[in-house]
From TrEMBL:
Name used for this protein in its record: mitogen-activated protein kinase kinase
Taxonomic path: Eukaryota, Metazoa, Ecdysozoa, Nematoda, Chromadorea
Domain Protein kinase: 90-358
Gene3D superfamilies (alphabetical): Phosphorylase Kinase, domain 1, Transferase(Phosphotransferase) domain 1
Pfam entry (one): Pkinase
Domain of life of the native organism: Eukaryota
Gene Ontology BP annotations: stress-activated MAPK cascade
InterPro entries listed in its UniProt record: Kinase-like_dom_sf (IPR011009), Prot_kinase_dom (IPR000719), Protein_kinase_ATP_BS (IPR017441), Ser/Thr_kinase_AS (IPR008271)
Keyword Transferase: yes
Recorded family membership: Belongs to the protein kinase superfamily. STE Ser/Thr protein kinase family. MAP kinase kinase subfamily.
Record's keyword terms, sorted: ATP-binding, Kinase, Nucleotide-binding, Serine/threonine-protein kinase, Transferase
GO MF annotation list: ATP binding; MAP kinase kinase activity; protein serine/threonine kinase activity
Top-level class of the enzyme under EC nomenclature: transferase
Amino acid sequence: MSHRHYRYPMPGMPRGVRHPPPPSPFIHRPAPPPVKQKEYEDEQMVPDGAKDVQNISHLQFVRMFVSGRLAFPAEYKEPAKEYSFGYEDLQDLGFIGQGNFGRVTKMKHVQSQKEMAVKRVRIITDQGEEGESLSLKRLRNEVETIKNASDCLEIVRLYGVTYHEGDCLLCMEFMDISLDKLYKTVHTIMHQRFDESIIGFIVISILRALNHLKSCQQIIHRDVKPSNILLNTRGQIKLCDFGISGYLVDSIARTKEVGCRPYMAPERLMASTSYDVRSDVWSLGITLIEIATGQFPYQNIYELSIFKQLEVIVLGDPPFLRNNDIYSQSTVNFVNQCVVKDVKLRPDYTYLMGTDFYKRYANEQEADSYVRGYVENVLAYCLSQE
């Protein structure tokens, strides 16, 4: 780092003298401005509507929301409530799983008896400044995206943020089961086919969530997969894990955050410098094929090297859902539209939300009760096998 050299004029210095005489130790010299500590840089492209936060560091941004307050919205005839809280007010109920960039634990807020999913994100890492910057950037993405999507019922809620022993704790809405665990239980333990109507309701919720991110925040999720789709016994289906979400500029994403490679669209794996929301449509299609068939569409892909994975997805034929009388032609057609390999021919959210398949399930009046019953049956079966 280069340092600027300051020259301070001395009292009574004659004109024409270019350099002042050596200062007397008794003459006060103003101190040079302090060198500011290097702040973490945000590499995300921020749209004009967010210029108020684009120039602050990731850590400063997160601290804006660490107010020691836990806010629960009004729901199910319960009024909105707010509490002062810290880590000592939380009761650990056990490990849930590993998120995209943090460990997730089930915890209870003792005073309200509210159960939450708490994601613990390590701020200080052993990976140096670059690793800490990446961790903070993903943390900021998560906080900012969920906070701004609080009016979208298909996105998990954020209740509050606090710190504990160098970790940042994101206290979020607790959901009963991930789609990943749900479909594996149905196929491998219950030995049943995955319910076609549940596939339809998943499509409705996830497209609504993705479209909300795009239309209201100009954000693309970039990590759609079964483990990031959650369900509960209230019949709700929600999208979570926004650590690698990114801003769209003129509807185009230009940053290269890495998601789960096997779910990534071919255009994201190629040398192309940009992609759009249709890459998330591909990921949704891969997810739907996986839950419908009970296995990942690219068989044994996790056993392949990274370069072989790229070759299979980019150069190979796209997967598709077969019409084998298990699912209706309407469902098969919708799913296969999502995995059209040529991004120019692949539909976007607007097109998919205008299909007869989407309209059929979007207009279903008993969707919540149907999903609730299905989730309760699967959870009950899991308990009976323990």
